[in-house]
Amino acid sequence: MSESGVKLFQTWSSPLALRVVSALKLKGVKYETILEDLANKIPSLLQYNPIHKKVPVLVHGGNTMVESLVILEYIDEPWAVGYRLLPEDPYERSVTRFWAKFGDDRVFVSVWRAFFKEGKEQEEALLLALNNLRFVEEHIKRKRFFRGDEIGFIDLIFGCVANLLSILEEVAKVKILDPQTFPLLLAWIEVFSEVPVVKENWPPREKMIVKFKAIREYYLASN
Amino acid sequence: MSESGVKLFQTWSSPLALRVVSALKLKGVKYETILEDLANKIPSLLQYNPIHKKVPVLVHGGNTMVESLVILEYIDEPWAVGYRLLPEDPYERSVTRFWAKFGDDRVFVSVWRAFFKEGKEQEEALLLALNNLRFVEEHIKRKRFFRGDEIGFIDLIFGCVANLLSILEEVAKVKILDPQTFPLLLAWIEVFSEVPVVKENWPPREKMIVKFKAIREYYLASN
């Protein structure tokens, strides 16, 4: 397979699309960006992702892929040589997939819930989020990145935490990453945020705060 | 890596462990079974899977893996030659991973919800489940198995549907797989259920019905 015709559908703010942007840049894959406006979905997005109707969508040589985790695995398949996102060793690969899944299924869901609730419900969601994040804090140990000295698959998945968490904290007025409990996660966020393929694509913080304030108000009003 | 020391922690009824059992048998990997009693968790399960505390857990050469999807990917890595669960082509692999994820994140969650609810809430959950299952019906087309003539990764993932759905239908007194709407899924269930590595491990239907009646009553009473 060639690199010809790689297209990425994304929005200016999607943290899931950001995973794919950073992955493509790390791998050195050239691609074309198609910016979607999710409030006003263009027909091509619906055509490429009729089930979830969401970005990111990757098109390569006429084939379409959706779901950021699935896309990341694809990008790391041998058609795109260069930097490896997943480790070579089968066991280490399974550890990586476990943490990626734990991030998506547990950590982000619980953080998200804490963000969209108020009062007692928020307290409960927060407890669960903190509990999940404690497992991550233990796993990261004192390494620079999740797998050691180099950025990899899990870092890109947990990029959501690096990118969004302090924004959600500010908008919902909750403190999640307390420095006493999460010194290693906070250190990782600092290191991760400075990686060029991450930093150069981060959406502007002020614009994100406006966006997430509006989302939170909308959710709270409709519950 | 060698096949020495492959151990699988499972229960007599876990549909997620069944995925791994069938996969190991398809690959021809010899393994030792450790039967867990989840009502009375033995310390070794808690030690091997401290985060989720659930089966299946696979131990290979001293390494521990959890999450059936992660374990299936590992089993298909090159250490275990023989039958391939995932296709060789990177794009086909990504399609496979998409459907596996869609099964776990959408289909089974919505079917499960329909099973544990009553009245209006059940009707709503059922609508969602049917909608998700319709995408699967479309995807399967007229193939014997999800990828064609041979059993593979997606079949093992959707084994839950084959194995559990008619049991849940009977216990919750709902009809989900109507032959007019889901002729292809029903045909697939029939073919899948007759594959020896599946059939020889299925838990006895009557025992499953007793178990799921008890689970449902417990959930409904505690809500």
TrEMBL record, chains A, B:
Keyword Transcription regulation: no
Single GO term (MF): glutathione transferase activity
Catalysed transformations (reactions): RX + glutathione = an S-substituted glutathione + a halide anion + H(+)
Gene3D superfamilies: 1.20.1050.10, Glutaredoxin (3.40.30.10)
EC numbers on record: 2.5.1.18
Top-tier EC class: transferase
Domain GST C-terminal: 89-212
GO BP annotations, alphabetical order: glutathione metabolic process
Domain GST N-terminal span(s) in chain numbering: 4-83
Gene Ontology cellular component terms for the protein in this record: cytoplasm
SUPFAM superfamilies per record: GST C-terminal domain-like, Thioredoxin-like
Bilayer-crossing regions: none
Stored InterPro entries: Glutathione-S-Trfase_C-like, Glutathione-S-Trfase_C_sf, Glutathione_S-Trfase, Glutathione_S-Trfase_N, GST_C, GST_C_Tau, Omega/Tau-like, Thioredoxin-like_sf
Keywords, sorted A to Z: Transferase
Family: Belongs to the GST superfamily.
Record-given protein name: glutathione transferase
Organism: Kalanchoe fedtschenkoi
